[in-house]
TrEMBL record:
Name of protein: Globoside alpha-1,3-N-acetylgalactosaminyltransferase 1-like
UniProt similarity note: Belongs to the glycosyltransferase 6 family.
Any one of the GO BP annotations: carbohydrate metabolic process
Residues annotated as binding Mn(2+): 201, 203
Residues where an alpha-L-fucosyl-(1->2)-beta-D-galactosyl derivative binds: 223, 293, 317
Taxonomic lineage from the root: Eukaryota, Metazoa, Chordata, Craniata, Vertebrata
Keyword Cell membrane: no
Catalytic center residues: 293
Keywords, in A-Z order: Glycosyltransferase, Manganese, Membrane, Metal-binding, Transferase, Transmembrane, Transmembrane helix
Intracellular or extracellular location(s): Membrane
Length: 349
């Protein structure tokens, strides 16, 4: 049997040598390989440029590129509400949206006893930075109306209303009555005068713009010393007998009572509910560990905020406070608490 095939040509039969057959097979293999390779390349997408760099040995550099592409600060809560940082594109969009509508907003603060020393600093800074260009009414609930004399000069479309309250000596007593006082004031006269109301501690100072990006149906502010901390560090009320009690599987964030707000109807519901829970615990001789802040957090677990403000909107100089791009509202009172005795005396805390 012949080992090599015979090829017929017009001139006759030609014997194919061993070397020629090897060359033919080699050329045929190259053609098949080339055609298969092009088909594969056409059907597979090119990998991400970062993976090319990883192949070249640039592991650390390109992992940093990937990390940089991820937002450094979350701009949305787990339930889809905006988490507001003042200088983001989303905040600029929110400012533009509300600025076109034109809104009436109120800023409510309770001033009793020695806290009257903070009134002028609070209002003067709010005139510069709080909702600039909008109609704002300042509501000061106070047991000493004369502490606001002489009146502070306000800008156009700004007004100050003093709401007298009975004298409330002692911080504990004030904390137990605060939500009830807020609910009464919101019901009358605030509900008929503004659309949005924000409750703030008076011992604070606005140091950067706080604009329309803060507006929402129900607005809460993240506690600066607990932002980014694990859930088990949150000082929720744990005593089951308390109406403010929070179970281990509840809670996304811990909110500060320094600033919260929203639509007047939502804020009345919040203040009214919290005041009733506080009265219920008082009747049972139960005191929540965080006083009204505990009830505020309980309420915000059951009624998640539609807008959450970052620690930019409640900050103080503390070793535990989160680093923020901009400090917008600074708590002078809590900042003093973070100082040692000597520093407190030097800053007249």
């Amino acid at each position: 049997m012949a080992l090599f095939p015979l090829c017929k040509t017009p001139t006759g039969t030609v014997r194919v040598t061993r070397i020629q057959l090897v060359l033919y097979c080699f050329l045929l293999s190259l053609i098949i390989y080339f055609l298969h390779g092009r088909k594969t390349a056409a059907s597979v997408k090119s990998p991400h440029p970062n993976f090319h760099a990883l192949d070249r040995g640039g592991v650390m550099t390109d992992m940093m590129v990937v990390k940089a592409a991820v937002p450094q600060t979350p701009v949305e809560t787990p339930w889809g509400a905006p988490l507001v940082w003042g200088d983001t594109r989303n905040s600029a969009w929110r400012r533009a949206k509300f600025a076109q509508q034109g809104i009436r907003a109120g800023l409510l603060a309770l001033v009793v006893g020695s806290y009257s020393q903070f009134v002028r600093r609070f209002l003067t800074s709010a005139e510069i930075y709080f909702l600039p260009g909008q109609m704002v009414t300042y509501y000061i609930l106070t047991d000493s109306p004369r502490s606001l004399d002489p009146p502070i000069e306000l800008g156009p479309e700004r007004q100050l209303k003093v709401v007298p309250v009975a004298e409330l000596p002692g911080w504990d007593r004030l904390a137990h009555r605060r939500m009830a006082l807020l609910a009464d004031a919101i019901k009358d006269p605030i509900s008929s005068e503004v659309e949005y109301i924000f409750c703030a501690d008076i011992d604070q100072e606005f140091v950067a713009p706080v604009g329309e990006e803060i507006l929402g149906d129900l607005v809460a502010t993240l506690h600066p010393e607990l932002y980014g901390m694990p859930r088990n560090t949150f000082p929720y009320e744990v005593e089951e007998v308390s109406s403010a009690s929070v179970d281990e599987d509840e809670g996304d964030y811990y909110y500060t009572s320094e600033l919260y707000g929203g639509l007047v109807s939502e804020m009345y519901r919040l203040a009214r509910t919290c005041s009733l829970l506080i009265l219920q615990d008082q009747a049972n001789r139960v005191v929540a560990r965080g006083l009204e802040e505990s009830y505020l957090n309980r309420y915000l677990i059951d009624h998640r905020p539609t807008c959450v403000l970052s620690p930019e909107y409640s900050w103080w100089d503390s070793a535990l406070a989160a680093d923020v791009p901009v400090q917008r509202l600074v708590s002078l009172g809590r900042q003093c608490e973070a100082y040692d005795k000597q520093t407190r005396e030097r800053n007249k805390c």
